[in-house]
């Protein structure tokens, strides 16, 4: 059983569908964020914009990994980057959920804290400009808030990406060695 799981995860780590899924999921999350911002008029806070930046980075890493799937070094760096992005996304989601629920108190201003040479909030203000302070997040479905959904999705992303990252180091012959 374990051998089959490892083999399956190894195959996933080399699959174009893995990266295509991350690209599609990331773009859907960004589209949903824009829907809430422009249609439902739910203005984004600092943590929301930082989450958008991380999701955008995930899409960029996934596109790069998809294009250079055959390169072992780039593939390994892409898997590692995905784990690091997922870790950061989990931390940001926890901060957002904690701010919403009141168990985390922090400074949530309007400054992204990015260096002057990377003023993405000025280049793409419709996507990355902080427009309100942190507080509650909108309800999605069945009473689940955006912060709760992001927490669950980021933890799942972290678990999957970490398992796939570890499996990417296993040789395909691992099935025979583990018997």
Can you give a write-up of this model?
A two-stranded antiparallel sheet has the order 1-2. The chain has helices spanning 2-13, 16-38, 46-67, 72-101, 120-123, 125-128, 146-167, 174-177; strands spanning 139-141, 144-145. It has a single domain, classed as Bromodomain-like (Up-down Bundle). It is mainly alpha-helical and 179 residues long.
Number of strands: 2
Strand order of the largest sheet: 1-2
Rounded radius of gyration (Å): 18 Å
Number of domains: 1
Give the SSE order as H and E letters.
Answer: HHHHHHEEHH
% residues in beta strands: under 5%
* CATH architecture assignment name: Up-down Bundle
Q: What distance separates the N and C termini?
A: 11 Å
Any key phrases for this structure?
2 strands, about 70% helix, Bromodomain-like, about 180 residues, mainly alpha, globular, two-stranded antiparallel ribbon, disordered C terminus
Would you summarize the structure shown here?
With 179 residues, the chain is mainly alpha-helical. It is built from eight helices and two strands.
Set out the fold topology:
Elements: H1 2-13, H2 16-38, H3 46-67, H4 72-101, H5 120-123, H6 125-128, E1 139-141, E2 144-145, H7 146-167, H8 174-177
Antiparallel strand pairs: 1-2
Helix pairs in contact: 1-7, 2-3, 3-4, 4-7
